Fold:
Amino acid sequence: MIIDKYEDHPECCNQNKLLPILSNHKMNAYLKEIAGVCEIEKDLTFHIARHTFATTVTLTNGVPIESVSKMLGHKNLRTTQHYAKVLDKKVSEDMMILRNKMLNSNNDKIIKKAN
Structure:
């Protein structure tokens, strides 16, 4: 619905963008207004939003850091690592995935030997 809303927006049409691009100053002003309406005590900024997106939305849900880097428009993976703190929960989940792959691989080898 949001993308449809801005489909005919002059800035979007002229620059071939899905949404109009706001300055950091304007974006932070809107975020401050939203925080006030929602009674959020913390200062919300575009910078904090990028951290949250990188860590909570993408990495925690299994998106590879290389993809996150592209989404954030970074040329260097080290820049993304600054934004995307790897959470202990994510490390634990990744280790469980590896463990299951190793178990399945060993089971496949046992089955092949039995045949």
About this structure: Helices lie at 2-5, 10-15, 24-37, 46-58, 65-72, 77-83, 88-114. The two ends are 56 Å apart (CA to CA). The CA atoms of residues 60 and 90 lie 6 Å apart.
